[in-house]
Design a protein that fits this description.
The strands form 2 sheets. This protein has a 4-stranded mixed sheet with strand order 4-3-5-6, sandwiched between helices. The chain has helices spanning 65-76, 117-123, 149-158, 177-192, 194-199, 204-224, 238-254, 269-279, 291-298, 325-330, and strands spanning 3-5, 8-10, 56-60, 83-87, 135-138, 143-146. It is built from 10 helices and 6 strands, in the order βββαβαββαααααααα. The relative contact order is 0.14.
């Protein structure tokens, strides 16, 4: 879906699989600055990005689970009045992630740009690499702050505390950070990125090696959730909201488009109920979960699905009662 070389967009795509092994290799995110309460430097990048209302804008897409987690955190923390949001068109085209001027739901509401790659070349005229979402943009300095979703959700969790309407919900409490990080490592390596290793495998051997790791992770999560309401106990944490975007896409997208069809999410009683529990837990989250739009994006990939036909199902009811309240009461 294209690449940028020395700040210039090219429609020829970069290979995503290793030429020798056929294994999917995810590139590291490039822009790694942090928003902090006072603008001091964060764990990486440079300083100068203070948490101010109206200064930042978030760009996401419907189909990307990495972008979805940042959108979820924006809602969970009540940051809608402080951080703007624009959503790209659901499918990519020769411009990569692009906008549609006459569609308010798929338009750049700040600058009227036509594609996400324009922000990359604006922030770094010499940029070379993949152009991805999410993009967290600073309107004051007119530059890209960060495109690493795991870091953006940490910023959203704590940097904007004290602004009007921002929730005091802490999804990364100090006493649970060791456990959260350990669970996150497993989820990222074997579930979030694991489905991509299966879906983008370039040969049978790479696919055969990737798929068992996905389901071994799901099996571990299923067992973990048998005795606790959430992944790290009786309260929601970042671990839950890093798993959620992959889980809500699993049956609609990864079972078919990525060939992760050993089992479905609905075949896991605890995981399926847990996913519904998260879906129903906060106002405003449901509108970001659209399995039909997710599938529309995933099945548009020409190599995996050359005819571009999008399946009509499966029917998924995330509003079905989950019954997991008893686990919290037992704890």
């Amino acid at each position: 879906m294209g690449q940028m070389i020395d700040g210039v967009w090219h429609t020829e795509d970069l290979p995503v699989a290793d030429a020798k092994t056929g294994e999917f290799k995810r590139k590291a995110s490039t822009f790694r600055n942090w928003i902090t309460p006072d603008g001091s430097p964060g764990p990486s990048g440079e300083g100068g990005f203070a948490a101010e209302s109206g200064r930042y804008h978030l760009y996401v897409s419907w189909s990307c689970p990495w972008a979805h987690r940042t959108r979820l955190m924006r809602t969970l923390k009540g940051l809608e009045d402080h951080i703007g949001l624009s959503i790209t068109a659901t499918r990519r085209n020769d411009e990569g992630w692009y906008f549609i001027d006459d569609d308010d739901g798929a338009r750049d509401h700040v600058y009227g740009k036509t594609a996400i790659h324009e922000f990359y070349s604006w922030a770094d005229p010499t940029f070379t690499g993949r152009v991805t979402v999410p993009v967290l943009w600073d309107k004051q300095r007119e530059t890209l702050v960060n495109n690493e979703s795991s870091e953006i959700i940490q910023m959203f969790n704590s940097a904007f505390a004290g602004l009007p309407g921002v929730s005091d919900l802490d999804l990364y409490p100090a006493d649970l950070r060791g456990e959260i990080d350990a669970v996150n490592d497993d989820i990222y390596e074997n579930l979030n990125n694991g489905v991509y290793r299966a879906g983008f495998a370039a040969n049978q051997e790479a696919y055969d090696a990737a798929v068992p790791r996905v389901f071994a992770c799901l099996d571990r999560l299923e067992e973990r959730l048998a005795t606790r309401r959430y992944l790290c106990g009786d309260q929601q944490t970042l671990a839950d909201w890093r798993a959620f975007p992959t889980l809500v896409r699993f049956d609609a997208c990864y079972v078919g488009a990525f060939k992760c069809n050993l089992r479905r999410l609905v075949d896991y009683p605890n995981l399926w109920a847990y996913t519904r529990d998260l879906y129903q837990s906060h106002p405003g989250l449901a509108e970001s979960v659209q399995p039909g739009l997710f599938a529309y994006g995933y099945y548009s990939h020409g190599i995996r699905n050359p005819l571009g036909i999008v399946p009509v199902g499966p029917e998924i009811d995330f509003t079905e009662p989950h019954g997991r309240e008893a686990l919290a009461q037992a704890a």
